[in-house]
Amino acid sequence: METKRKYWSDIMIALDAIDHHLAGIGTFEQYAGSLTVKDAVERRLITIGEAVNKLMQLDPDDVIEHGERIRAFRNRLVHSYDATDDALVWAIIKNHLPPLRRSAESHV
Q1: Domain spans of the chain?
Q2: CB-based contact 3:102 (threshold 8 Å)
Q3: Which long-range contacts (CB under 8 A, 24 or more apart) does 21-29 make?
């Protein structure tokens, strides 16, 4: 289905952008200290969450690893922006984006 490929492509573009924004950022302290980088990364995480949401709506039987958690985190970023935890975002970047990239690569 072409629409599914588009959403997976959107996820890949967002992941690439996150990598670009994090170039030169090697530690949590550097990340937490850069408002510009945090804003850019959070924006791309919102895009990823929305694309995952669309994929889940298109094909509820197609399991996306941590799909519900990705969608819930997107909602948290959008609706509870004032309670965003930099440490949680950093953990997501380090622990959860690499497996998501592997999954996206297998779909585009």
Answers
A1: 2-105
A2: no
A3: 22/93, 28/86, 28/87, 28/90
Q: Dmax of the chain from CA atoms?
A: 42
Per-residue pLDDT of the chain (108 residues; tens, 9 = 90+): 579 999 999 999 999 999 999 999 999 999 999 999 999 999 999 999 999 999 999 988 888 889 999 999 999 999 987 889 999 999 999 999 999 999 999 988
Please check whether residue 88 is in contact with residue 2, taking contact to mean a CB–CB distance below 8 angstroms: no
Pick from 23, 56, 48, 22: nearest CA to 101: 48
Tokens of 30: 């550097």
| Cα separation, 63 vs 38, whole angstroms | 29
